[in-house]
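Now read the record:
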Amino acid sequence: MTTYLVTRHPGALDWLRAQGFTDVVPVPHLDPAQVTAGDSVVGTLPVHLAAEVCALGGCYRHLSVDLPRHARGCELSAAELEAYGARLETYVIRRGDPA
């Protein structure tokens, strides 16, 4: 089982490792073909990619951060992510018709 972190930000990788995720594969973009059942994908994926991760038997953990307007678009350190309340939230997403 592999844990992928989808990010181009070194601070996000540092933050995740500080949370105890020591064996992480950072990728700037996710190719869903690399995900197998039991893998974890951490990041801020578009919903259609998160649904594909779940359909493949992977676990999607969204990296949620409540950023104030002045911090948006900035490169953040692990300490800044922590200060802004970074957290992992697990989502199970599937495609389908609303009913």
In short: Strands lie at 3-6, 24-27, 40-43, 59-64, 87-91. The chain has one domain: 3-91. Residues 3-91 form one domain. The chain is about 25% helix and 25% strand.
